[in-house]
Each structure stands twice: as structure tokens, then as C-alpha cells.
Design a protein that fits this description.
Largest sheet: 6 strands, antiparallel
Distance between the termini: 8 Å
Low-confidence stretches: 1-13
Order of helices and strands: EEHEHEEEEEEEHEEHEHEEHEHE
């Protein structure tokens, strides 16, 4: 996920001394210090609720059911809660202050989320503005995740940022390597996280990662797969392809990778290798408008145009899309026009 996609500042609310009780899932009760957001309070209890904005009511990822003690929905929550959620007592945990005893429901899978102090062991240039970063978990540490999920990367205070921040990035690594995590990042202009990772982070530095999070994943079927990605959106798809290879999958799959210029493409060699190693995988890179003199013999045009011209089995396929909102929205429109069922289109949109 891109630097502009999920941002956050850590909750620095000043503490109070009064203590309250939070009953979780009707099973467990914890006593906590009041006055802070429910999001940061749970974090202090090592319960990591997903967030991309870190308490600014922008991402809507930190939704939880708060059955008692939350008070009325705030104006800051209104844009991110639909009527059904409000009726079901869903709230943004970043906006709920712990000022009374609470009764809440936390999805069970979030109890598996942990934070890790990892060492950066490799930084690889994939092109002029995309890097792959590889992190090593502490000795003996292992991370199980589903290909398609993402992690939080915690950026420390540095000269370009006066407060700790967190960004979310799709996992690109081979899931069979449980001691390492890789991300593919594109440098975002003035992005706090990518500026740090591109210009300040060095091999050997320690960085804090949290996760895994997210529901983006391949279905457990033999339905043909259409992957569509742009730029660093190749990250989650790379992880999925590793998993298809690891499991000996015979599933038919095609990846359409779009770029504006030849220099914007990345991962060509690896994708070609997947073509050799997977039973039925086809890789189709496309460049929207190659510059004069660029050596490009592949498809030319917008990726949606290439999909429309090339894909023959859209109606029978599942589609997995990763990239910018504009690319995702355009791809969904084209796929639906070509007959792909809406319920068979899945995406990870880089907000």
C-alpha cells in the first residue's frame, strides 16, 4: 500500500488517573486508565486494532462494536458509518473516549495481531522510485499471514516528522519464509513514511512492524484469476503468486501490470520467472505512453484498454486488483462491462 494510503499519528492524549473496566466479547474484562481513545487504550493492552490514520477519523479501519458506554456518535464519525453500522453500535474506536465502563466486541482474528521489532536487512531498487524493503523478525520469530494482507510500519520521529507515524503496506514476501517480511514501496512526494524509508532507513536499522491485517485474499476455488495492478500495487500480487507456486496450484491466472512509462515498470524479471514456474500463469505488462526512443515491444495503452482487448474469459474469472483508486475504479467498470460478476471482483485500493 502506498505512503499516501494509510497515515497516522500516535495518540498522545494526556493520561488521567481514573480507572474504568472494558468488557471484551462477553468473555474478558480489563481495567484501564481513562481519558484516552479506545483505540490507544486497547493498544496499551497489546490489542492492536487496524488503523491507517491513527486516530484522525479518516480511514474508518478501526471500527468496533461498542455495546455500552460510548455515548452518542460524534460528527467526526458520521461520514464513515452507514445506517446499518450505527444501528449495530459500530463506532470508530479512535473517536470513542474511555470515560465510562465499556462493553465492546472485537473480531477474534485481531487477537492474533502483534507488533515486532524487526531489522532492515535489505533494500533493493526496483526502479527509480520503487524499492523493495526486507525486514527480519527477531531471532526465532515467525509470522503467519494470508497473502494479500498488510502490515503497519511505524516511522520514528526524524527531521521530516515531529511525531511518530504509521503507514500500512501490503506484504510482498514469500509466505513460506516466516522470519522475513518484504514490502514494495513507491516514493510518495513529501510522504513521511516513504521519505524515511527511501532516504533515512539503512540496512541494519531496527523498525517496528505490526499486523497482519486485512481481508484481501484469494478465494479457495479453481476459478481463473485476473490480476490487475499498477506500480507498487504489484506487492500483494507478488505474495499471492509465491503462494500459488508454494502450493503447486494449477489455477489459471493472468497479471496485467500497467505503467505510464517504461521506466515506471518493475518486477519484470520476477514475473517472467513466475511464468516459467507456475502451471498456467501469463504476465502482460503494458505501458500507456512510451517515450520516443524507449525500447518497448510490449502492449501499449491504458491497462484497462489492454484488458478489454486481451482478456477472453472475463465472465468466468475472479479479478484481484491493486493500485490507485482511479485505476481500480476504471478496471472494475471495464470488468463488469466484460461480464465479470461484481461479487467476483476484489480489490486493495491505495487511498
Amino acid at each position: 500500500m502506498a505512503d499516501s494510503q494509510k497515515a497516522d499519528s500516535i495518540d498522545n492524549t494526556s493520561p488521567r488517573q481514573k480507572m474504568y473496566k472494558i468488557k471484551i466479547n462477553e468473555e474478558k474484562e480489563i481495567e484501564v486508565e481513562g481519558g484516552k481513545s479506545l483505540l490507544s487504550t486497547l493498544r496499551r493492552q497489546k490489542i492492536f486494532i487496524p488503523t491507517a490514520c491513527g486516530g484522525k477519523a479518516k480511514c474508518g479501519l478501526c471500527k468496533l462494536k461498542v455495546l455500552e458506554g460510548a455515548g452518542p456518535v460524534l460528527a467526526s464519525e458520521e461520514p464513515l458509518l452507514n445506517d446499518k453500522e450505527k444501528q449495530s453500535n459500530v463506532r470508530l474506536s479512535c473517536q470513542v473516549k474511555v470515560e465510562k465502563d465499556l462493553k465492546i466486541i472485537i473480531p477474534p482474528e485481531l487477537f492474533a495481531v502483534k507488533e515486532y521489532s524487526c531489522k532492515c536487512v535489505e533494500i533493493t531498487d526496483l526502479n527509480y522510485d520503487i524499492k523493495q524493503l526486507r525486514f527480519e523478525l527477531p531471532a526465532g520469530g515467525q509470522l503467519d499471514y494470508t497473502p494479500g494482507q498488510y502490515m503497519h510500519l511505524f516511522v520514528p520521529v526524524y527531521e521530516k516528522s515531529s511525531q511518530p507515524t504509521v503507514r500500512a503496506y501490503s506484504i510482498s514476501s514469500d509466505p513460506s519464509d516466516k522470519n522475513h517480511i518484504e514490502f514494495i514501496m513507491r516514493l510518495a512526494p513529501d510522504g513521511i513514511s516513504t521519505t524515511y524509508c527511501f532516504k533515512y532507513l539503512k540496512v541494519g536499522d531496527n523498525i517496528r512492524l505490526g499486523g497482519p491485517y486485512g481481508q484481501f485474499k484469494l478465494s479457495d476455488t479453481n476459478t481463473p484469476i485476473v490480476f490487475i495492478a499498477g506500480g507498487s500495487g504489484i506487492s500483494a500480487i507478488k505474495c499471492m503468486l509465491h503462494n500459488l507456486k508454494n502450493t503447486g496450484s494449477k489455477r489459471k491466472a493472468v497479471l496485467y501490470l500497467g505503467a505510464n512509462k517504461v521506466k515506471d515498470l518493475c518486477g519484470l524479471k520476477l514475473m517472467s520467472q513466475f511464468e516459467k514456474e507456475l502451471a498456467d500463469f501469463k504476465f502482460i505488462p503494458a505501458v500507456a505512453s512510451p517515450d520516443e526512443g524507449e525500447n518497448w515491444n510490449g502492449k501499449t495503452g491504458l491497462i484497462t484498454q489492454v484488458v478489454r482487448e486481451d482478456l477472453k474469459n472475463a465472465a468466468e474469472s475472479e479479478a484481484y486488483l491493486c493500485g490507485s483508486p482511479g485505476m481500480i475504479d476504471a478496471s472494475v467498470k471495464v470488468l463488469k462491462e466484460m461480464g465479470t460478476k461484481e461479487e467476483n471482483i476484489f480489490y486493495d485500493k491505495f487511498e
